[in-house]
Amino acid sequence: MGVTYFLLCCLSLAITAQAQDCSRPVGGPNMVLKDKDILLETFPDGTQVTFACEVGYISAGGSAISICQGGSWTPVRLKCERKNCGPIGEVENGNVDYPEGTEFGDRAVITCHDGFILVGKDKIYCQDKGWANRLPVCEVVSCDPPPAVADGTFKPVSESYSYRDVVQYSCQKGYTLNGSISASCSDDGTFQPAPPSCIMVRCSDPQVDNAELTEGSQRVYGYMATVTFKCKTGFMMTGANSQRCEINSQWSPPLSCKLITCKLPPTVENGSFSPNKTSYNYGEAVQYSCQKNYTLSGAKSVTCSDNGIFTPGPPTCILITCKLPPTIENGSFSPNKASYNYGEAVQYSCQKGYTLSGAKSVTCSDNGIFTPGPPTCILITCKLPPTIENGSFSPNKAFYNYGEAVQYSCQKGYTLSGAKSVTCSDNGIFTPGPPTCIRSTTPPTTTTTTTTTEPPTGNGETVKVMLIVLAVIGTSGICLLCAFCIYKKKRGSGRGGPDKEAPKSEEEVALS
Ligand SMILES: *[C@@H]1O[C@H](CO)[C@@H](O)[C@H](O)[C@H]1NC(C)=O
Ligand SMILES: *[C@@H]1O[C@H](CO)[C@@H](O)[C@H](O)[C@H]1NC(C)=O
Ligand SMILES: *[C@@H]1O[C@H](CO)[C@@H](O)[C@H](O)[C@H]1NC(C)=O
Ligand SMILES: *[C@@H]1O[C@H](CO)[C@@H](O)[C@H](O)[C@H]1NC(C)=O
Ligand SMILES: *[C@@H]1O[C@H](CO)[C@@H](O)[C@H](O)[C@H]1NC(C)=O
Ligand SMILES: *[C@@H]1O[C@H](CO)[C@@H](O)[C@H](O)[C@H]1NC(C)=O
Q1: Compositionally biased, Low complexity: which spans (predicted)?
Q2: Can you tell me the distance from the alpha carbon of 40 to that of 68, in angstroms, rounded to the nearest whole number?
Q3: How many angstroms separate the CA atoms of 113 and 98, rounded?
Q4: How many angstroms separate the CA atoms of 111 and 169, rounded?
Q5: Which of 112, 234, 457, 486 could form a disulfide bond with 138, CB atoms 3.0-4.6 angstroms apart?
């Protein structure tokens, strides 16, 4: 810089060796124009100016003078160096540091060893004329007794305390210490931290809306007294259920009981509930019901209870099925399956000889039970068969079993028309219908003759008739024989025959 300046000056000097004014001269680094020159703007030829080092800088030799010659300044040889204050010295029981150095504007920082307190300035600056202040001193730390605490004391008690000595605080009975229980003599000659205070802690009778005290009831509530609350029916704790008497004579945390409400009750498959609302009050009930073909198992009604939960748990809807329908005596049912769906029907029927009494068809219904109840099979019996005119039946009984037959017969002179035998059948009726007895057209004698001439049958009655016929014929034969013998005798004695003939014809009529 200086060199360039010098060369430029020489050049201008060589070109213009004429009498010319100079403009304001520029010195080297860290230097300023001295005295009144500093105020001028132009300098006549031949003017001599003097430079000086800036504040904080000192001359390191060289001429400070420059002369205006032919419009330019002769070079300045002055050198300016920054002022160096050098070390400030030592501090007993302390240290001196120079974070930047010891030159102009730099600072010396003084610290005392632990247990020593600095008296004086802890920072000293290097100025134009050297260090600005004298060094401080490090004095041994000692503390005066700490301030007295109302309703409390500390120990040990002493006139003066050395560095790091500790005092312990305590409060009188019934008082609570608020703050640090101990303090120590610190660097600045005071006890730290600040002394505690002794406080008489008294909390008011605890009170929580919609709740009652369950534990911790006392006459007075001192520091740390704990009470537990329980919400009244229908209310629920929103947070903790116990609180403590804190140092500020206030209960903490605050407790609150909020009205219990329930959200929607649980849904049930194949079922529904009512009423359907977004929120239910405590104690409110909800009724469940199942869809058709489902039956409810569990509690039909649930109630909004503690903790906002419906109790008891929800029921379930179970598909209704029926097991086998009841069996009946002398009857059966169909179809026969392991399980029947809701609404499915079963048909009953009775064995032969039995008749069904009650519902023939039963249906799988609610509760898995077939309704109506099963029918019964009653043994079929018949009452007396119908009587017929001029005829009778046998056997004659109070009642007849199913399948039992009854024989009809007609009186003498009547002929049977229709089925001779009828059978006790379904519905207690004899089938087929009864026969009728029709008056015979042939006279009774003819009937007898017909009877006699009839070929013998295996029938006992016929045999009887035949025996009678044979007996009549036999007797007639004997009589005829006797009559013949008598006739012969009479003929022989000469008597009349017609007297004897009359009885014979009488006998014949009686016999027929
Ligand atoms: C307890 O000490 C702290 C800190 O010094 C203070 O803020 C508070 O108010 C004190 N409590 C009472 C109840 O005095
Ligand atoms: C019963 O619920 C089941 C499962 O949700 C479903 O598959 C079925 O269809 C329902 N039955 C009726 C009759 O709605
Ligand atoms: C209750 O009502 C809501 C809105 O109407 C409906 O979406 C929901 O299915 C209903 N629930 C029952 C169980 O009825
Ligand atoms: C009808 O039921 C009864 C009782 O079980 C039984 O003794 C009787 O033999 C049954 N009748 C027929 C024809 O099976
Ligand atoms: C109930 O069961 C019957 C018989 O199984 C069936 O026909 C009907 O569709 C069922 N109803 C419902 C609503 O599931
Ligand atoms: C036949 O029946 C009719 C009507 O009951 C009766 O009047 C008549 O006397 C009966 N005949 C004989 C021979 O019993």
Answers
A1: 441-457
A2: 13
A3: 17
A4: 32
A5: 112
Give the CA count within 13 Å in the CB-facing half-sphere of 367. Answer: 4
Round to whole Å and give the CA distance between 304 and 277.
12
Is there a contact between 211 and 174 (Cβ–Cβ < 8 Å)?
A: no
- pLDDT tens-digit series, residues 48-88: 899 999 988 998 888 889 999 988 899 999 999 999 999 99
Phi, psi of 460, rounded to the nearest 5 degrees: -60, -40
Distances (CA, A) of 468 to 165, 241, 391, 452: 166, 125, 25, 10
Q: Which residues does 380 contact at the CB level (< 8 Å), separation at least 6? A: 353, 354, 355, 402, 424, 425, 426, 427, 428
Looking at residue 231, its amino acid is: C
Mutate to test the pocket of ligand 2, among 267, 268, 270 (most ligand atoms within 8 A of CB): 270
Q: Is the CB of 439 under 6 A from ligand 6?
A: no
How high does pLDDT run on average in the chain? 85
Backbone angles phi, psi at 136, to 5 degrees: -80, 175
- Measured by CA distance, the residue closest to atom 9 of ligand 1 is 248
Q: What is the pLDDT of residues 213-252, one digit of tens each?
A: 999 999 999 999 999 999 999 998 999 999 999 999 999 9
Instruction: In the chain, count H helices and then E strands.
Output: 4, 52
Answer for the pair 321, 342: CB distance below 8 angstroms, yes or no: yes
Q: Tell me how far the alpha carbon of residue 131 is from its chain's centroid.
A: 83
Spell out the residues 6+ positions from residue 419 whose beta carbon is closer than 8 angstroms to its own: 408, 432, 433, 435
Query: What is the whole-number distance in angstroms between the Cα of residue 319 and the centre of ligand 3?
Result: 22
Ligand 3: residues within 6 Å at CB? 267, 272-273, 276
* Tally of CB atoms within 10 A around 141: 21
Letter string b/e over residues 455-464, b meaning 16 or more CB atoms within 10 A of that residue's CB? eeeeeeeeee
